[in-house]
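step=predict obj=Cytochrome bc1 complex cytochrome b subunit n=549
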Amino acid sequence: MSTATTNTPGAAAPDNRKAPAGERVADWADGRLGIYSLAKANMRKIFPDHWSFMLGEICLYSFIIIILTGVYLTLFFHPSMNEVVYHGPYEPMQGIRMSEAYASTLNISFDVRGGLLVRQIHHWAAVIFLAGMFVHMFRVFFTGAYRKPREINWLFGFLLFVLGMFTGFTGYSLPDDLLSGTGVRFTQGAILSMPVVGTYISMFLFGGEFPGGDIIARFYSIHILLLPGIMLGLVVGHLILVFYHKHTQFAGPGRTNKNVVGMPLLPVYMAKAGGFFFLVFGFISVIAAIATINPIWGIGPYRPDQVSTGAQPDWYMGFAEGFVRVMPGWEINLWGHTLVLGVLIPLVLFGLILGLLALWPFIESWITGDKREHHILDKPRNAPTRTALGVAWVTIYFVMLIGGGNDIWATHFDLSLNAISWFVRVAFFAGPVLAFIVTRRICLGLQRRDKEKVLHGRESGLIKRLPHGEFVEVHEPLSPEHLHKLTAHEQYKPLEIGPTVDENGVERKVSRLQKVRARLSKSLYGEDNQIAKPTAEEYKEITSGHGHH
């Protein structure tokens, strides 16, 4: 018995056409990886638009450039301290004994096609990465972007900066030239100053007495594997948290802690970010092509019995070296052991200052008792104590940079080396205090100016003569958007201990820690640290014609 099928008139015929290859691949991947739902949730994510947010992008793109150029350089670099006699293309070095690391760096610079350019791009990208991290972190600090829920992301950024410093140090030590060797020798001296463990760490790190025969190979592994791997993980974690928490934004109409006003990630933000990446890459390439950095052929190979004249670390390590250079050479002897305080104290201070910076989000949260989420950024002027503390920290940093290059300042400006060292010692204590006072007063002055603007409008520059002969300047009212920006900030109230005796006359115990916390909170948000915002009544009185012109 056979059956036959017939098509009903008007019924649609089955579509046997194959989907396009790209669509089939997308369906296959989506069925196994869930790409469609992931992309749908994140590709339209909104990002606000402000020039200061590009600082973080500069750091990210510089890091990518470092990875790309570093992979190329590893193809030609030989991380060995075995001695060879140079017979390469650079004539002034012919017949000189040097390590294989130094010889291979010379070959990269003069024999490998594009090697010198790539090497300089790599070094300049590292410098710009750390400079971008420095500025980006302080943009986050001054605007309060580190507050809940972004404390962990602040720690990620801080660790990236610190690891970047050590990655840069290990990287510029790899060529085994006289300048980098002097820096390694300085580091070994600092390690030896550590009580009890210093000699053991030095022995394990250098594989014997300095300079040993393994330090370049060990630095190479640390530089291309360990530190970049950790940093890559931190970068990925940092970006994931940026996506998860949503991006911070400055105050403005329609912007709240529950929304983000800006452009979608795809296609607008991705197009802008892609173009900006090539701008950063091009800018670094131009700098690398016209500005020589780390010309090892003019310095020579490292020899333990020599020190290069005017030896300076990269700027990001000059802060630490400045502490050591200006510290008096104090020593004490305890139980037959010598403590080199002239090195130990600067290292401890260096760690404490960086530690305070890393833990600041948690310290501020404890002081203020503020456990709310913050997605709207502060203007630095509206948090004068925090801003003043940040400027004081930057002052310490740059004062110690002067100390780290005291010999260069002395030779280039014909100054006394001792005078520079004493200036740095005094400025280390006086400079931050002066910077704190001046910055705080500037912030309060800007707050007063904002209040004046809200109440009286913008100065137009037009002079008007009144009927009775008085000349006054005409003030133009601000737009509603501008008024909102000047008045959207919060007016914080400091924590108060409250009455120590209740209504029954029973005295309540207040711990010393609570008193310290209340005092610190008052120093951050007390009456002297913020100018009261203009009230609606004040604004109505002024704009109704009963107040100022």
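step=describe
Strands lie at 46-47, 83-85, 97-99, 249-250, 263-264, 331-334, 337-340, 376-377, 458-465, 471-476.
step=end
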